[in-house]
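JOB MANIFEST
job_type = single_chain_structure
chain_count = 1
residues = 294
[input]
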Amino acid sequence: MMLLEWLKAVLYGIVEGITEWLPVSSTGHLILLQDWLPFRFTEDARLLAEFGEMFEVVIQLGAILAVVILFFGRLWPFSRTKSREERAGTWSLWLKVIVASVPAAFVGIVIDKLLEKLTSRDIDGWLYNSLVVAAALIVYGVAFILVERFNRGRMPRIERVEQIDYKTALCIGAFQALSIVPGTSRSGSTILGSMLLGLSRTAGAEFSFFMAIPAMVGASALKVLGFVDYIGECGVSVPLDAWIVLAVGCLVSFAVSLVAIRFLMDFVKKHSFAPFGVYRILLGALVLLFWIVR
């Protein structure tokens, strides 16, 4: 039985590692996986639900580690091989990433808690379902196709991440905040916003990668704390198998992300994001059909 659960974790890790960086919504795919192939390592339905909600966020830490490793030279401000100007540029990049993270943090913490207080349901409780995922997949799929057509033949205003100013970073962060709706895709929202703001595909993708570090670390911390609170309040015992499943998912997500990030960076140098828009529309239609007939 546990071998099957580990294989599920491997599949979840593969899906996360691929979809976290491509603009097709990792959360949307993971929600669909949980609908179609849920974990069954315990008979406690509440524990499975709480673990699943935490798992789909924390598994992203493996993907984030891939970004840190692949871009370590650009992200590490204490490198002795960098000049004083280069180190200053690295600190400036981190400050812009922090500024860009503010809108999503505000929505994910303040608005989420306020909504829960007023309605007894947080944002996850209202939005995490297949119908919302389908709608977001389709809407953003159409948006990618339209934006690519609009930008055809236009020269980007910003070619490199280093050219992003703080105002632009904050605006991109506002688009990232929209990704709290499952199915929109965090990378999809930020890349789409970047292109609307005049960034090149490469600069938009790279800045999206960097923004993922604080966003996903913060989201994972909140989910882990929430899961720990649940364990403490209910006094449940989490089986070792659950932690093994989480570790396997993170490890596979990390390995697959190393490949997916390289693929996307090579892809955007020669192609548009329109194919991802088509994929989103087709997947959204499939999800909508599944929601109607089940």
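[summary]
The first helix runs from residue 2 to 19.
The chain has a mean pLDDT of 90.
exit_status = 0
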